[in-house]
Amino acid sequence: MIRISLFLLILFSILASGCGFDLDSNAVESNVQSMPNDFNFSVQFGVNRRNEINTFEDKVTKDLIENGTATTKIALTDEEMAMVYQKMKDIIIIERKELIPKTNCMKEPHEEDEWNIRINGKTITLSISGAYCEPTTDATQLIELRNYVFNIVKNKVEYKELPASKGGYE
To answer: Which segment of the chain is annotated as a signal peptide (predicted)?
Structure first.
């Protein structure tokens, strides 16, 4: 009788741990799928915010400096959007951000970023000025996010086909 009880206890333990594994994998799956259907964003950046990545309209605009701008259709894949969404979750994009540091010096020319993010029917707008010599931690996180998204875009064939920028900003 003890052997049967022991056997049942071991069998139950194995089954229970197997169920726990399935629950964990479902939790991971649902976390990946938690990106809202309406998630989109646009970020304008650079000097005079002449560069833009816009997932609302699946377009990218490149600053050609002396030659104006060039725009092309570029859509991020579902996987790329999910990765960007996760990075936004990691920096808790929906919380209030401190984007203006205590000013100890300013620089010119400078870049500016403006984000418009739609999540669950709400729009979040964030603006960053690159005029400050020492950006806040929140501003640095958004600049890193912009660089992450821009690196995805720069590796796409459509972006590589855009004309090269000519000139520079002083």
So the answer is: 1-18
